[in-house]
Design a protein that fits this description.
InterPro entries: DoxX
Keywords: Membrane, Transmembrane, Transmembrane helix
Organism: Algoriphagus alkaliphilus
Mean pLDDT: 88
Strand content: under 5%
Order of helices and strands: HHHHHH
Oligomer: single chain
Helix content: 55-70%
Number of domains: 1
Structural class: mainly alpha
Protein name: Thiosulfate dehydrogenase [quinone] large subunit
Low-confidence stretches: 156-161
Largest sheet: none
GO cellular component, one term: membrane
């Protein structure tokens, strides 16, 4: 017998939709970068306004091809995992890590110059909001109710004493 869900069907549906939408965003970004032969994270990393030495090291000639490959691969894996509902907790953690790296490269902190961002916010930006949404997806995994993971999850057997 499966464990009863703590969420109502509409709550589960809302979380599934959130998971798929975030997955689509990650997958789209990964595919866009994969099929754009001139794309590289080098400019973004070199323009970092916070923790510059770390991001400049990532942009170094010896690291940038590895960083570009890891970025694209992570974006694709997170996107596919979230959309298909497979290993969503792992995908969520990887996605949170990526988003926090993007956030700290160009944080919207007072007194820091704004980098290539989609708006000028104070402390909060879309990367931080999407990372917080992935924390929710991590804490309330929906892939057992809607996703491929349900085919790999053993049903709990209730034993009678």
């Amino acid at each position: 017998m499966t464990r009863p869900s703590l969420l109502s069907p509409p709550q589960t549906s809302a979380l599934v939709i959130l998971r798929i939408l975030i997955g689509w965003h990650f997958l789209y970004e990964g595919v866009l970068k994969l099929y754009s032969p001139s794309w590289t994270a080098k400019g973004y990393l070199l323009s970092a306004t916070y923790m510059e030495s770390f991001f400049h090291w990532m942009a170094s000639d010896s690291m940038i091809s590895t960083i570009d490959t890891l970025n694209i691969t992570a974006l694709l894996l997170v996107g596919v995992g979230l959309i298909l509902g497979f290993k969503t907790q792992v995908a969520s953690l990887i996605g949170i890590g990526l988003l926090l790296l993007y956030y700290f490269a160009h944080p919207p902190f007072p007194g820091y110059p704004q980098g290539p961002a989609e708006g000028s916010y104070w402390i909060i930006n879309k990367n931080l909001i999407e990372a917080a949404a992935l924390v929710v997806i991590f804490l309330f995994p929906t892939s057992i109710s809607f996703g491929l993971e349900r085919f790999f999850t053993k049903k709990e057997i209730q034993t009678q004493s």
